[in-house]
Amino acid sequence: MAEKLLVNPIDCEGHGACAELLPEAITMDEWGFPIVDPRPLPPGLERNARAAVSACPTLALRLLRS
Amino acid sequence: MTQDTTGAATELPRLLPPPEDKNRNAHDWYAHTDRYGRLPYRERQGTLIADVEAAGLTGRGGAAFPVHRKLQAVLEAADKRRRTPVVIANGAESEPASDKDATLLWLSPHLVLDGLQLAAEAVGADTAILYTHVNRGHDVGARLREALQARQAAGVDRVPVQLATAPARFLAGQETALINHLSGGPAIPTFMPPRITERGLHGVPTLVQNAETLAHLALIARRGPRWFRGVGTVDEPGSMLATVRRADGKPRISEVPLGIPLQDLVGELGQDRAVLLGGYHGTWLTGSEARKLTLDNRSLAAVQAKVGAGIVITLPPDRCGLVETANVVRYLALESAGQCGPCLNGLPRIAAALAEIAGGRFGKHGTRPQVLADVQRWSGLVAGRGACHHPDGTTRFVRSALRVFAAEVDRHQRGRCSATVRQPFLPIPKDAARTEEDWI
Amino acid sequence: MTGINSSTALWYTSRATGVVALLLLTAVMLLGLLVTRQGRLPGLPKFAVSGLHRNLSLLATAFVAIHVLTAVTDGYVNIPVTAVVVPLASSYERVWLALGTVSFDLMLAAVITSLLRRHLSRKTWRAVHLTAYVSWPVAWFHSLFSSTDMRHGVLFLLAIVCAVAVIAAVLWRLASAGNDVPRAERVGLLMSAVHGRGRRGQQGRAPQGERTLSK
C-alpha cells in the first residue's frame, strides 16, 4: 500500500521541521519552503514521514494513501 | 467589441448573432426564441449528460476539461453526500487580454442562461449563479438583469439565478477563488483536496462552468451531438470564440471552428511576427512556427502550447517582445495571492529580473548568463508548487518569451531595443492590488 | 520557609507541583512565541522548538492535574471537586482559586483542541489556542495570591522572572508582527526590494526567503 506526501502550500509557512525529519523525501528551496518528492514513499521511511507530518506546526504536510 | 465571421460558411456563427443582424437585438428574448427555439428541458436529472459526452464538449474557459465528466462528478457527489448542488456560470474573464465572455454575455445572454438552467437540471441543482467581471466596456450587468426579467415574465427559468460580480483581480476567475469570494471571503484560491465538485460553495457539490461552455451546451440540447460535431476536428469538435488582437491592439471576437489554421485567424504571419497564444499564461511562438499550426491542442502540442481560452495576439513589428513580457510579468507578480511561499518569492524576483533585461540594465549587476540562469532556476522552483496554476502559467509565458525573443535579449545587452513605440501594447489593468479590500 | 501552616503531604505536593507547573507553563509560552516567529533554540534543530513546546505542555498538564487532585483530596482545606472546573465553587480563597480554575479550563481546551487539531478548522483551533494569552496571566495571579508561598523569598523572585520573561517575549512578538506587511502589499514590496537591492553578487548574501504569515 503506497503512500504519498502532500504539502498544502497555503498552510505552509516554511518552518522547516519536515525537511529535517525526512531529508530523503523533502528538501528546502532557497527561500525555506519544502520541495516534496511526488513519488510514492519508499518502504521503511513511514515512521519518519509520520514524525514529519506531526512535527509541522501548521499541519501543512499530509500523508495520503494512494 | 467587434465581431467577424470566419470558418465554415453556413454553419457559423452559432453562438454569436449572424453578421446580417443589423438590428443587433439578439439579446432580446423574442429574437432568441425565434432563432433557437424553446429551452428544451429534459424533465429528468442526468439525461443531458450522455448527449454532452457524445458531442465531446470540453470547457471553453481554458482548461478544456470534458464537460460530461464534470457534470457526472457533481451528480454523483450530490447523490453520495445527499446534498443539493449549486451551478455557477463563470463569466469572470479575469484575463485582461480576453474579451469573448463579455462579448457573449452582451450579445447572446439568453444562450448562457439557457445553458445554466440545463446544467442545473442535469445535476439537480436548486441554485444558479452567474458570475461576471466588475468593469468591462458595456454594462453587461444591466443587460443580464433585463434578460432575467424577460425570462421571469415568460416563466422559463426553473432555478432562480443570482448575479454576482468578480473583483478586478487576475485570479478572480479561478474556480476556488471564485467560490471563496462568493462565500464572503477574498477572491484568492484555496487548496484542493477536496475538489469543488465534491465540496464547493457552502460545502455542497458545485459545478463551475465557463459562460461560453454553457452556451454550447444550450445548443447541444437543442440540436444534438452530431450537429455539434459538424465543425471542428474529430478529437476537438465544435466551435469556439476567439479573441484576436492584431497591430491596432483592438480585440476582435470571432467564432471559429476548432482546428482553424492560425494564419486564417490573424492574417499573414511573417517570420518576424511573434504570436502570443493563450493569453498571459500562454505561449509565445515565432511567426514561422505559428504559420504551420492550427487552433487545436493536438497541433499546438508540438510547440508545447495550448488553445486555452482562445486568445491570439500578434506582436506588431514596432514593439519589443521582451518589454511587453516584462510589463505583463510585473502585473502577474503583483496579482499573486501571496499565499504560497514559492509564488510569493519567485514571481517578484522573476519580474524584477525581466525588468532588468528589458531595460538593458543587467549588464551592470551581473552577467547575462547569470540573470537568465536565475530566471530559469526560479521558474523551475516555482512551477507546480502553488495552490493554483498561477506560477505554472507565468513561468510558461516567461520561458517561451526568452526562447522566442533570444535575439532580442542579445540586442538588449548591447544597449539596443527593437521597439520604436514606447506605448505598451499588451493590455494591463491600471490598478494593481494594494490593500486587502482590493481582493474582496 | 515561611507561610507553612500544615504538615500534610498532599498539601505540600499540591503547592510544589503548582510552582513547577507555573515554571513549565512559562517555558511553554516562551516556546510557543518562538514557534510563531520561526525562531530557533541555539544548537537544536528547527523541529525541536515546536516539539519541546508540545512535550512541555503535556508535562505541564500532568503537573497541573496532580496539583489540582492533591488540592481537592487533601484534608487540610475543603475544596470541592467541582471547583476543578467551575470557578468560584470553593469557599477557600474563593477568588484566587477561581482564577486557577479558569486558567485550568482554558489550558485544557487548548491542549485538547491541539490533540484533536486534525479534525478542527484552522480558525477554531487558532481561536482556542490564542486564549493562552489569557490563561497564563490568570495562572500567574492564581499562583501568587492563592497562598503566601510565592510572595516571599526565592519563589517570589521566580514569579517575577517568569512574568518579565513572558511580557518581554510578547512585546518582542508584537514588535516583529508590526513589521509584517499585509498580504496584498507583500508582493509589491518584495519586487521593489529585489529590484532596488540588485543582484546577489553585489550584496554578498542572497535576500532571505519571504515568509508567508499565519492565517
Spatial order of strands in the largest sheet of chain A: 1-4
The interface involving the most residues is between: B-C, 31 and 20 residues
**SS-derived structural category of chain B:** alpha/beta
* Radius of gyration of chain B from CA coordinates: 22 Å
CATH topology of chain A: Alpha-Beta Plaits
Number of helices of chain A: 2
Strand order of the largest sheet of chain B: 1-7-6-10-8-9
CATH structural architecture of the largest domain in chain B: 3-Layer(aba) Sandwich
Number of domains of chain A: 1
**Segments of chain B where pLDDT lies below 50 for 5+ residues?**
1-9
What is the mean pLDDT of chain B?
90
Largest sheet of chain B: 6 strands, mixed
Helicity range of chain B: 40-55%
Given the C-alpha coordinates, what overall shape of chain A results? globular
Characterize the largest beta sheet of chain A: strand count, sense, and whether it forms a barrel.
2 strands, antiparallel
H and E order of chain A: EHEEHE
**Oligomeric state of the chains?**
heterotrimer
What is the CATH first-level class name of the largest domain in chain B?
Alpha Beta
Strand content of the residues of chain B, in percent?
5-15%
CATH first level of chain A: which class?
A: Alpha Beta
Task: Please describe what this structure looks like.
The complex is a heterotrimer of chains A (66), B (440) and C (215). By secondary structure, chain A is of the alpha+beta class. Chain A has helices at residues 17-21, 46-55; strands spanning 3-7, 26-28, 34-36, 61-65. Chain A has two helices and four strands; from the N terminus they run E-H-E-E-H-E. In chain A, 50% of the residues are buried. The mean pLDDT of chain A is 93. Helices cover 41% and strands 12% of the residues of chain B. Chain B has three domains: 2-228, Rossmann fold; 239-314, Roll (Ubiquitin-like (UB roll)); 321-424, Up-down Bundle (de novo design (two linked rop proteins)), CATH 1.20.1440.230. Chain B has 440 residues and is an alpha/beta fold. In chain B, strand 3, helix 6 (140-154) and strand 4 (161-166) form a beta-alpha-beta unit. In chain B, helix 5 crosses helix 8 (211-223), helix 14 runs parallel beside helix 17 (390-404) and helix 16 runs antiparallel to helix 17. The N and C termini of chain C lie far apart (48 Å). With 215 residues, chain C is mainly alpha-helical. Chain C is built from eight helices and no strands. Chains in contact: A-B, A-C, B-C. At the B-C interface, helix 13, helix 14 and helix 16 of B face helix 7 and helix 8 of C.
